[in-house]
Amino acid sequence: MNVLLRMIFAVYGLLGLALSVVVLLEVTGMYALLQLVTDGGMPQEVFWTIVGLTAFVGIVSLILFLTSFRKGESSKDTLEVPTSNGYIAIKKDAFESALGRFLAGRDGIRMTESKVNMHSKKNMVDIDVHYAPVSGRGIQQTGTELQEEIKSYLENWFEVTVRRVRIFVEDPAKSKSKKRVV
């Protein structure tokens, strides 16, 4: 969320919250700025309708006001690694490309999909790899080796922490229709 949008949310939230509080206090009779339209008061249905709508607007305004101060990640497609001179931004595509090149050279597997989840606040990445075995090697042994090799390769190459590597084994017959990443 950019700064201008945050400021708009903050102003709207603050004004909406203040207006909601004033209307609720007026309607409940605790704050008498305005006279009721009639001396007999307002009907019960109108009273609860106004209270409900005002409470709803107040809650939405409070949520917008509070979220305007929440600092989100700058981009989900970029991992920003701080250095003494600023930061180095590593694109998600770079991770996926390197992972694809690494897996393309592996014998006995047919990669069908890989996904990289980046956590800028912690300077960590999570890797998900879906593959179909094409050799007679043990699936658990291949998966464990693959996890360790992927983690080591990416940590050495990008110098960031790979928090988790998850391997998903798929049916080789179903993966033939998908393109192999080379």
Please report the first level of CATH classification, the CATH class of the largest domain.
Answer: Alpha Beta
- Morphology call: elongated
Question: How many DSSP H or I helices?
Answer: 5
CATH topology grouping of the largest domain: Alpha-Beta Plaits
Total beta-strand segments: 5
Order of helices and strands: HHEEHEEHEH
Q: How is the quaternary structure best described?
A: single chain
Rg, alpha carbons = 28 Å
Number of domains: 2
CATH second-level architecture of the largest domain: 2-Layer Sandwich
Fraction of helical residues = 40-55%
Q: Termini separation (Å)?
A: 36 Å
| Spatial strand order of the main sheet | 3-4-5
User: Quick one: CATH superfamily of the largest domain?
Assistant: Cation efflux protein, cytoplasmic domain
Largest sheet: 3 strands, mixed
Point out poorly predicted stretches. 32-39
Estimate the mean pLDDT confidence: 76
| Strand coverage percent | 15-25%
Structural class: alpha+beta
Overview of this protein structure:
The chain crosses the membrane at residues 7-34, 46-66. Keywords: Membrane, Transmembrane, Transmembrane helix. This is Alkaline shock response membrane anchor protein AmaP. It comes from Bacillus daqingensis. The chain is α+β, with helices and mostly antiparallel strands and 182 residues long. The chain folds into two domains: 3-67, no CATH class; 78-175, Cation efflux protein, cytoplasmic domain (Alpha-Beta Plaits, 2-Layer Sandwich). It is 47% helix and 23% strand. It contains five helices and five strands. The strands form two sheets. Strands 3-4-5 form a three-stranded mixed β-sheet. A hairpin with a 4-residue loop joins strand 3 and strand 4 (124-133). Helix 1 runs antiparallel to helix 2 and helix 3 (92-104) crosses helix 4.
